Amino acid sequence: MRKSVLDHLLDWSGRIVLISILGFVLLPFVVVAIASLNDGAILSFPPKSWSLRWYANAFEYRDFGAGLVNSLRIAAVGATIALIAGAGFAYVFNRYDFMFKGLLNTVLMSPLIIPNFTIGLGLLILSTAASLPRSIWLVIAVHVVIVLPFVVRSVYVSLKNFERRYEQAAESLGGTPLHVLLTITLPLLLPGLISGALFAAILSFNEFTASLYVVNQRTQTLPVAMYNYVREYADPTLAALSVIYVAPVAAMLLLVHKFFRLEKVLNVD
Amino acid sequence: MLTEISAIAPQDTGEDTAVQIDGVSKSFSGTVALEPIRLKVRRGEFLTLLGPSGCGKTTLLNLIAGFLEADEGELFIDHDLVTQVPPHQRKIGIVFQNYALFPHMSVAQNVAYGLRTRRVPKAETAERVREALALVKLEDFADRRPRQLSGGQQQRVALARALVIRPRVLLLDEPFSALDRNLRSAMQVELREIQSRLGLTTVFVTHDQSEALSMSDRIAVMSRGRIRQIGTPSQIYDRPENHFVSTFVGDANLFAATLLEKTDATASLDIGTTRLSLATFQEELPEPGPVTLFVRPEQCSLTDPDQPGAIAATVALSVYQGSYAELHLDCSVAENGRVMLRVPASEAMEPGTDVGIALPERGPAIYTTTERET
User: Fold this and answer.
1) DSSP, res A38
2) Residues on B contacting A at a C-beta cutoff of 8 Å
């Protein structure tokens, strides 16, 4: 069948819309990436001369290194705690009926509605009232509260799609409930669990607003360190760091992708 | 190899009961799925639970397996009370419709699962896995993953996995419905062979009446959470006890009739303007009044329309089926206006031909018309 003029028009306008959307989404990153190569000491766009020296500066600046280590530790520990707690909650929600189930669900999901700064401020007030030190565990606690709903959702969906017949077959073959959980349920849910945890780690790694309330000089995360830097200096170091910042997040996303694909493979019967 | 497995599954010892279901019932949030059921499965017997979806057959299977807890009643396996026993202690083998092979394990690991849970020594496990795979002719597939197997092969693995634990009862939950037709009949024969060689008590759930008729020692026909009739395939087919069984199993022609008079063994009735006297196998006939006369296609024969006792009909459609033809007849006294019978393909008739239907003197069943149900 021959394409009419209208078909061609739709074809081209569709492509243009698609490219515009992609461009719009990527535009900030492109601008920052270009600005990071500016040789001058003032963040300006477009750059007049080119240099990589701000990248060197980003690597040398102490607060960034310490912030990165903090951020990675917080993300790793926070995501692990959120995974264990979230998977437990999701399992109980999926398998059992109990009083106040709906209420508990609402409470668990409330961090999706409550702004991050409220969560940070709330835990700050609480920890001060309880005379708790502003240690890294306080930051981790804040991050767990923020990412937990995402983990619960992710595991819950995996459980909902889980074929109960696998467990029943295993039980009929003499597997005790615990043995079935360890040898059948958990291995089959693993891709969902890992991608949930990585998603949580990425959210935690990017978190800024709530962290701002609960960190101190020693426990500040990378985003907070960047914020503090930009308040003092206006050079392109931050632009360079922003480009570097993409690397660990992209690595985590690639991992998630790998596991999502893996899950697909596992679901093939 | 066979003696090894069959040593555990006891041979048929007459009327010995392997599974006894004693007034077991089940409701789901107020909806009755299963009325109190009484049923005995004999040792070594292949018993089929047959019924349409929602009739409670799968609920009953899940109750026997222990995946569901009965609301009331007791369940015995090998004379042990198991009503409160969890599934992993019941020693029951199950093959599901989708086989539920563990996708993260090899074929051999799947089959070995039930031995590892029971801490069978390694050497014995390897030997029994090998035997079980040999039984289903899959020795060479031990290291494959389930997804690398065809549907029929997957089913054999599921069967081997269920048999290797030497189950007291084998439960089959519509295991053939995912297979294509040729493979299905081959697997049915193979399964039945293995089952009778091992003398394995088997409860088979299906909605496919031809499958039930061809495979079973006995069939329990279920509808609406009740067992409507239980008996051998020929009892079910030839002597259905009620309207539901007669129409669910096999093809049936239904005629609207009026029962005039009944004696111990005969009934006289009017079908339209035709008066007939029939011998019946039924122990109890309905009261005189409007009834439904039920006749299998092969019990009807074609005759001249003017023949006394013949029911007038017109050929509506002739469907060629290879060795025979299905004649669909328009008939004013049939309950849905149609009668179907089979004739040799060479005797097929043109649409529009007027014919007479001759009913047999023995065989048809008579039910009260109000008993109609789906």
Assistant:
1) B
2) 65-67, 86-94, 96, 98, 100-104, 113-114, 117-118, 146-147, 154, 158, 161-162, 165, 171
